[in-house]
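dude i think i finally got it to work??
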Amino acid sequence: MNQSEGHLQSIVNIYLSRIANLNVKHESYLIRTLREIKSEKQSWNHHPGIYYFVQNDVIKYVGKANLDTGLRRRIYNQIEAFGEVDRWDTVIKDDSVTCGMIVFPSDDWQWIATLELLLIEKLRPEYNKRLP
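look at this
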């Protein structure tokens, strides 16, 4: 099964082609960069969207940030979490891991859940416990 970021992007592109005029923005940061810019305001901080973690070109986790939570809170909750030794910690402590974001406009938040489910179903990331 292809779990690469390129495959994720192709799924997103197919999804977006089905929803005309949905204006999302894609951003990606190394985990170490996110830690460095934590106190800075980012354009995506309070936006809803999808976030995912990539380690060695494999999607490890896909999550969503709803309108009331925002991407900043969800992402920092994940990278500051305590995981099982030799499990989630191997992802969040790896400075080469990237965190990708698909930032949705606030008025299009309702599409997030369907994209999250689609990505989890198609990619089956290792750390998503609620696999469909």
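The first helix runs from residue 5 to 18.
im so relieved honestly
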